[in-house]
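User: Could you go from structure to sequence for me? I need the amino acid at each position, not a summary. Structure tokens:
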């Protein structure tokens, strides 16, 4: 081939391998909506900035001596880690000055925070998050994560509560950041799931997968089996069945870690009601809903008992729910036993 001839195959390969940052992915999404003002993209970029800051703080946590508890409990009665507070403040600082954010609500704050206090009705979005999920893993260098959910602010709602308490089906976007052996951001804006890895050398999230699909099945279940005796009999029957059928058990102690594994390798995650948490432990609005949206967008299923999680009408910001989510075949196996 002469040097002037175009090697079409090679060109196609180069095109496929083009580097895409989270920023350019977001802008490409925005370009598909000609009437978009860019506000939504700014919010996603604020979340990406928070993820970089939190990731850096976690990596240096032992050196900077910010591990361990602060001696306080949060609104849920759970021990707050120093990094819970740092991650919460980081997200608040990044989102607090973004135009278009009307309300921010977090696991660590009792009440939603009204960002646009003077003119809440001008703010267009509500951002909900769990700043540092699984934070009890921190002291032992285990995986932890940030989970977020973005809703449209209901400008006709009379109260802040009313605007925040929307079903998961109304989420515009959802995602999580896993601070594991690498920092991974998984995002859906309702048209498939994309995955990005933080390249710490250049400080950018690079896209490593687009339109991610969860395996249809996978012989792994994730649950805290220490609670098994207080599970309803249906869940216990499922665990018996899974063990008789050669399933493996994997449990990270951080939902983000477990969901990330099943998204890539298949399986099912269960947090049923227990004696200690009769409604389930996980929070509907900023844990179960965003994770369910991601799993469903990837082709999986997410239920609370037999009800689809995304269709639950929330009654309180910190409402809890039971959770069964993952590969469609595996969720079906659980439901067959309930
Ligand atoms: P957190 O938001 O207070 O960290 O709690 C949520 C976490 C989930 O990430 C995880 O799946 C679960 O709690 C673990 O709970 P348990 O220790 O009861 O198994
Ligand atoms: Mg959590």
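Assistant: Here is the amino acid at each position, in order:
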């Amino acid at each position: 081939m002469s040097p002037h001839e175009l090697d079409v195959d090679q060109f196609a390969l180069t095109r496929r391998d083009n580097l895409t940052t989270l920023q350019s992915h977001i802008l490409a999404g925005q370009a598909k909506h000609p009437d978009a003002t860019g506000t939504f993209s700014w919010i996603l970029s604020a979340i990406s900035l928070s993820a970089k800051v939190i990731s850096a703080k976690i990596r240096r946590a032992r050196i900077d001596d910010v591990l361990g508890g602060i001696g306080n409990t949060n609104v849920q009665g759970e021990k707050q880690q120093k990094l819970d507070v740092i991650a919460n403040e980081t997200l608040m600082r990044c989102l607090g000055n973004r135009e278009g954010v009307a309300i921010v609500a977090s696991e660590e704050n009792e009440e939603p925070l009204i960002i646009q206090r003077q003119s809440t009705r001008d703010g267009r979005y509500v951002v909900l998050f769990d700043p540092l999920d699984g934070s009890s893993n921190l002291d032992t260098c285990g995986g932890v994560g940030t989970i977020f959910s973005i809703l449209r602010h209901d400008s006709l709602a009379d109260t802040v509560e009313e605007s925040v308490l929307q079903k998961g089906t109304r989420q515009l976007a959802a995602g999580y950041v896993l601070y594991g052996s690498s920092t991974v951001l998984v995002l859906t804006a309702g048209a498939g799931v994309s995955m990005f890895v933080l390249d710490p050398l250049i400080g950018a999230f690079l896209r490593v997968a687009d339109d991610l699909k969860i395996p249809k099945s996978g012989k792994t279940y994730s649950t805290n089996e220490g609670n098994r005796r207080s599970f309803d009999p249906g869940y216990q029957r499922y665990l018996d069945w899974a063990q008789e059928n050669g399933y493996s058990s994997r449990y990270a102690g951080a939902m983000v870690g477990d969901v990330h594994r099943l998204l890539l390798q298949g399986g099912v995650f269960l947090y049923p009601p227990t004696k200690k948490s009769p409604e389930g432990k996980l929070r509907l609005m900023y844990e179960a809903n965003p994770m369910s949206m991601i799993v469903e967008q990837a082709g999986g299923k997410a239920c609370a008992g037999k009800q689809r999680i995304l269709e639950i009408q929330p009654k309180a910001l910190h409402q809890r729910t039971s959770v069964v989510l993952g590969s469609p075949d595996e969720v079906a196996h659980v439901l067959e036993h309930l």
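One structural detail worth keeping in mind: The pocket of magnesium ion (ligand 2) is lined by residues 107, 130, 133, 287 (CB under 6 Å).
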